[in-house]
Amino acid sequence: MKLFQNLFAKDNGIKVGAPVSGRLVSIKEVNDPTFSDEILGKGAAVIPAGNRICAPVDGTVTTVFPTGHAAAVTSDDGVEILIHVGLDTVKLNGEHFTIHASEGQKVKRGDLLLEADIEQIKAAGYDTITPVIVCNSDEFAEVAAGEAGDVAQGDDILTLNK
Question: Per-residue confidence of the chain (162 residues) as pLDDT tens digits?
């Protein structure tokens, strides 16, 4: 019985939420080896259905790229998470992105970080798949992604165990 208690315990690893609503896919499906080969770390990706990119954890904003295409948050548990909206979207030079967070800002899971006009980004010819990378994944014994499928912003997509 103790085994089942451990499996269903409320604190079963560190949870990372979806930064945006959409379809959760394997990081291996990202058409960029920097992400799919896990060069920056392990993670998952969301094909966004929404425009609001939110904090996936409680923590501190460590980086917001001036172009608004990416942000990083370090969780209160020490998980370093990079959210990269689309592939090669840095080339848009901030067009179709609005920044709502700043470096050093404390955030709660679900707080708005960025807005991305996903339809305009697609219309400009960019892949909008959004990798969610644990940059310090080597500090964890396991980084497990959830099953592929539809997710709402805030749904758990990654579980980390020390």
Answer: 334 444 444 457 999 999 999 999 999 999 999 999 999 999 999 999 999 999 999 999 999 999 999 999 999 999 999 999 999 999 999 999 999 999 999 999 999 999 999 999 999 999 999 999 999 999 999 999 999 999 999 999 999 998
Q: Residue 74: how many CB atoms within 10 A of its CB?
A: 17
Give the phi and the psi of residue 150 in degrees, each rounded to 5: -70, 140
Catalytic sites, residue numbers:
84
- The CA distance from 47 to 106, in Å, is 26
pTM over 0.85: yes
- Cα–Cα distance measured from residue 152 to residue 24, given in angstroms and rounded to the nearest whole number: 10
For 28, other C-beta atoms within 10 Å of its C-beta total 12
